Amino acid sequence: MTLEAHSLGHGYGGEDVFESLSLSVSPGEVVAIIGPSGVGKSTLLRLLALFDRPDEGTITYDGDSVWQLPKQRRLEYRRRIGMVFQEASLFDASVRRNATYGLRVRQSWGDRLRHELARLVSRPNGTSAALEALRTVGLADNADQDAASLSGGEKQRVAFARALAYEPDVLLLDEPTSDLDPRNTAVIEDAIQQARNRGIGVAIATHDMHQAERIADRVAVLLDNELIEIGSTEIVFDDPTDDRTRKFIDGELVY
Ligand SMILES: Nc1ncnc2c1ncn2[C@@H]1O[C@H](COP(=O)(O)OP(=O)(O)OP(=O)(O)O)[C@@H](O)[C@H]1O
């Protein structure tokens, strides 16, 4: 599923966060959105995830302008998007149930009913997808543990597994490793590469430039209320078009 944002503008309380922002994410590519704190990376991801309607511009999924569609069809697109927030929000149940949660949310009511009926007579549907996702983040052995007893890093890995478990077409990640140590960060980065290799399009907001360089195919630089640059990771890091990009990457821009 190809995601495209055209001339997006958005703000709060009459104050623009960004304007004229255009960006695409194709199947099987990782696009990193980098920029200093408060520049609007989370706002952009929320718009792409269809949580909020943009003040200006259009968002298309596979060419369909999603905010022009009837609500039901927009929700169908919404269900094909996995989003991982900066703060892992798990509920008080086992790791496995947390990882399975997305599978149930994604289903229609009819499917959910069938799922619940199936659960009464056999193993829950989706268990294997959830377990496979937990395996990807190295937590399959913790499936029956209480999520509440996990460390912060492990919780973030479960949140990531939950998004992966239902095989979204697009994965939107908001600083998914901000609170993780290098080992946990490596696990998530590896899982992102696996998602990409399975054809999922990934957009990741990060202020860790090294992370963008390690995992992204393309990098978008958000600065001064706009996307000042978007291009292949190599070009953005080694030979950027906009001088502010070079300064930001070299740490010369202070915000
Ligand atoms: N719901 C909201 N209501 C009002 N202002 C908001 C809201 N969400 C974000 N903002 C403001 O919009 C601007 C962009 O915030 P956003 O969280 O998108 O930035 P960010 O680049 O993700 O920052 P960080 O890297 O610190 O998470 C900030 O000035 C923030 O205070």
Automatic annotation (TrEMBL):
<feature type="domain" description="ABC transporter">
    <location>
        <begin position="3"/>
        <end position="249"/>
    </location>
</feature>
<dbReference type="GO" id="GO:0016020">
    <property type="term" value="C:membrane"/>
</dbReference>
<dbReference type="GO" id="GO:0016887">
    <property type="term" value="F:ATP hydrolysis activity"/>
</dbReference>
<dbReference type="Pfam" id="PF00005">
    <property type="entry name" value="ABC_tran"/>
</dbReference>
<keyword id="KW-1003">Cell membrane</keyword>
<dbReference type="InterPro" id="IPR027417">
    <property type="entry name" value="P-loop_NTPase"/>
</dbReference>
<dbReference type="GO" id="GO:0005524">
    <property type="term" value="F:ATP binding"/>
</dbReference>
<dbReference type="InterPro" id="IPR003439">
    <property type="entry name" value="ABC_transporter-like_ATP-bd"/>
</dbReference>
<keyword id="KW-0813">Transport</keyword>
<dbReference type="GO" id="GO:0005315">
    <property type="term" value="F:phosphate transmembrane transporter activity"/>
</dbReference>
<keyword id="KW-0067">ATP-binding</keyword>
<dbReference type="InterPro" id="IPR003593">
    <property type="entry name" value="AAA+_ATPase"/>
</dbReference>
<dbReference type="GO" id="GO:0035435">
    <property type="term" value="P:phosphate ion transmembrane transport"/>
</dbReference>
<keyword id="KW-0547">Nucleotide-binding</keyword>
<protein>
    <submittedName>
        <fullName>Phosphate ABC transporter ATP-binding protein</fullName>
    </submittedName>
</protein>
<dbReference type="InterPro" id="IPR005670">
    <property type="entry name" value="PstB-like"/>
</dbReference>
<keyword id="KW-0472">Membrane</keyword>
<dbReference type="InterPro" id="IPR017871">
    <property type="entry name" value="ABC_transporter-like_CS"/>
</dbReference>
